[in-house]
């Protein structure tokens, strides 16, 4: 019975992994198929005549490199600012159990339920008054505001897993709050900071709605917006180049996750064992 249960668990895990991998594998397969295979009524997993023409056509039709650079700069800036702002805020919420701290924590959770549509109009008017419409800086501000509640909630849990005794020992040695946060707490929060930064980066990299509304100049548009240009006015998609460009757009997220996966795993286990 134990072996049967373990086999069932492995089978369920493999089925779940196949479910998650299917879109990416099908996207990769479509990116290498020639036009005659894309229109076939009997699609295959592996292209019969693989070709790089879809990638060449994608780069010829749309400025993917420039759009990718725009997305990279905006996503990196949003992730960095979100982490720098959320870390000290999370420290205060975790260490000071006051009514105000509990109210802020509750508001952080409630704010995650707000849909994009409710936020875009006030954000648009605010950025218009600040003259940040059609500006990467305005888009960074929006992404930071959008990622900050979840980043704050996430880092608060990591701070609570850090033993207070370490901070008390630093205080005995004469370290102040800021020095304790920078020299003692922050190094122990490295897994949580890495996970939070990855979340903010991936969110900003994949975001489409705010970028579509706030950026008007073609030279400033991000990669998700440029991908929509492969769809014609009548809704007919240029499937091959679209699949190739979409596959390239997923690579940065995969690379970021590959670099920080060990820290994320360590962060998930942080605080599980208490001394």
UniProtKB/TrEMBL annotation:
GO terms for biological process: transmembrane transport. This is Carbohydrate ABC transporter permease. It comes from Streptomyces roseirectus. It is a multi-pass membrane protein. The keyword Cell membrane applies. It comes from the Bacteria. It is found in: Cell membrane. Belongs to the binding-protein-dependent transport system permease family. Residues 68-260 form the ABC transmembrane type-1 domain. InterPro entries: BP-dep_ABC_trans_perm (IPR050901), MetI-like (IPR000515), MetI-like_sf (IPR035906). The chain crosses the membrane at residues 7-28, 72-94, 106-127, 139-159, 180-205, 242-260. Keywords: Cell membrane, Membrane, Transmembrane, Transmembrane helix, Transport. One of its GO terms (cellular component) is plasma membrane.
